[in-house]
Write a structure and sequence with these properties.
The chain is of the alpha+beta class. Helix content is about 30%, strand content about 25%. Strands 4-11-6-9 form a four-stranded antiparallel beta sheet. A hairpin with a 2-residue loop joins strand 7 and strand 8. The longest helix has 19 residues. The chain is globular, with a radius of gyration of 19 Å. The two termini are about 30 Å apart.
């Protein structure tokens, strides 16, 4: 369990519960900053440990940037309500199956009428949604998109355009559809 303290250091709030395979402290290693939460172990656990010196030896700038994105994406994924009931072994598979993609401002993620079937999760940035050339919505950090193309087996009903630099997780339909049915996510897609 990870707890945070208030400014005065007296009030303690539960911030997160970690599962097998979860990590913590990665951002402090990347930024060489002090820890900003206390970690308390509530049952027998085995931890792998990597200190700042060893981390520096193992990493380069590209790795750090990529690792930071993976860590932040993993944390965001863990916060989303629709993924809360996924067992930790399945959660690890969801993360390992995700393809991390970058888009620049004005890049088209997909177009209205496309027949591809994949689902995405916005990790950074914002996406503009257009139908018939008119802006109808925005998709922001932490929001899922593209799942309906598989659920209803129809072409894309909108064009998605990056409004700024966008980073997403992308899952191919064949795999995530089986997982969605397995853990009951289809109810989230019907909303």
């Amino acid at each position: 369990k990870i707890y945070g303290r208030s400014e005065g250091g007296h009030d303690v709030n539960l911030l997160a519960k970690l599962h097998s395979g979860s990590g913590f402290g990665e951002l402090a290693l990347l930024d060489s900053t002090p820890r900003n939460a206390d970690v308390m172990i509530s049952k027998h656990s085995i931890l792998a440990y990597l200190d700042q010196e060893e981390f520096e030896k193992l990493s380069n700038e590209f790795y750090r940037k990529h690792f930071r994105r993976i860590v932040q994406a993993s944390q965001l994924f863990d916060q989303l309500e629709m993924f809360q009931n996924i067992p930790s072994r399945d959660r690890e598979e969801w993360l390992s199956r995700a393809i991390l993609l970058d888009f620049n401002a004005s890049d088209i993620l997909y177009s209205q009428g496309d027949k591809d079937q994949w689902m995405g999760l916005v990790l950074e940035g914002e996406i503009r949604v257009e139908r018939e050339g008119r802006e109808v919505a925005h998709i922001k950090r932490g929001q899922i998109f593209g799942e309906m193309a598989f659920v209803v087996d129809e072409p894309r009903k909108a064009t998605l355009i990056a409004t700024n630099e966008v980073v997403i997780f992308r899952w191919e339909s064949g795999w995530w559809a089986k997982q969605a049915n397995k853990i009951g996510l289809e109810s989230h897609f019907e909303q």
